[in-house]
TrEMBL record:
Keyword terms: ATP-binding, Nucleotide-binding
Name of the protein described by the UniProt record: ABC-2 type transport system ATP-binding protein
Pfam family of the protein (one): ABC_tran
GO molecular function: ATP binding; ATP hydrolysis activity
PROSITE patterns, sorted: ABC_TRANSPORTER_2 (PS50893)
Length: 250
């Protein structure tokens, strides 16, 4: 394996997903480097959730090729699942379990040995400042704490890649900044971050951004280059231009 290939966490070539007469994902191609924070943006219905399900090993594409953490999206979906983490705004933790019970439950699913699980769990609870809340139901925690805990659980097993689907939805600006600090720390440890967000200011925290429009990748570059190309002050302006059908960035 050459160095260039070994540095790629996700590689997609002409990935397409068709449901009957509807093409949800239309021949998308891109690469994500290991340790990169990659923003995957698009309006509702743009195809980003369908694409994320493919890269998470939850859905098989209709055509095209792709590897995630070196594993094929057609034949090695179970290996993909073992090497990734996933966090959704809608579901990531069991609210009827305590903080400690959630850690034990997900640690068991991830195959962390019991002795190691106790050590890692106690350390994580201390790092999050949840010593006094470890026996509380997750439903009793403030939303910001739930989000931080959910992210910590998603990377509890040190996956190669973590998929974050609208991870900061509904939390206050201070908590969002704290959450992104955790993302940067995970990236510094070599974990690849694949994140969707509808907050355009958060898009600027990413190393590179892909913007989907009608199932296609309409633009892919660094935030600085995209703003320069569209003579835009911020990512909101870039997104607006693309939504209006601006010329595709190659």
């Amino acid at each position: 394996m050459n160095t260039e290939t070994s540095n790629i966490a996700i590689k997609a070539e002409n990935i397409t997903k068709i449901f009957g007469d509807f093409t949800a994902v239309d021949h998308i191609s891109f690469e994500v480097k290991k340790g990169e924070i990659f923003g995957f943006l698009g309006a509702n219905g743009a195809g980003k959730t369908t694409a994320m399900r493919i890269f998470s090993g939850l859905s098989i594409p209709s055509s095209g090729t792709a590897t995630v953490a070196g594993f094929d999206v057609y034949k090695q979906t179970e290996m993909i699942k073992k090497n990734i983490g996933y966090m959704s705004q809608k579901f990531s933790l069991y609210h009827n379990l305590t903080v400690k019970e959630n850690l034990n439950f997900f640690g068991g699913i991830y195959g962390i040995p019991r002795k190691e699980l106790k050590i890692k769990g106690d350390l994580l609870i201390k790092e999050l400042g949840l010593e006094n809340e470890k026996n509380k139901l997750v439903s009793e925690l403030p939303l910001g704490w739930k989000q931080k805990l959910a992210f910590s659980v998603a990377i509890f097993h040190e996956p190669q890649i973590v998929f974050l689907d609208e991870p900061t939805g509904g939390v206050d600006p201070v908590t969002r900044r704290q959450f992104w600090k955790m993302i940067y720390e995970a990236s510094d440890r070599g974990i690849t971050i694949f994140v969707t967000t509808h907050y355009m200011d958060e898009a600027e925290y990413c190393d590179r951004i892909s913007i989907m429009v009608d199932g296609k990748i309409a633009a892919l570059d660094t935030p600085a280059n995209l703003k320069k190309h569209y003579n835009a002050q911020n990512m909101d302006d870039v997104f607006y231009e693309l939504a209006r059908g601006a010329k595709r960035v190659e």
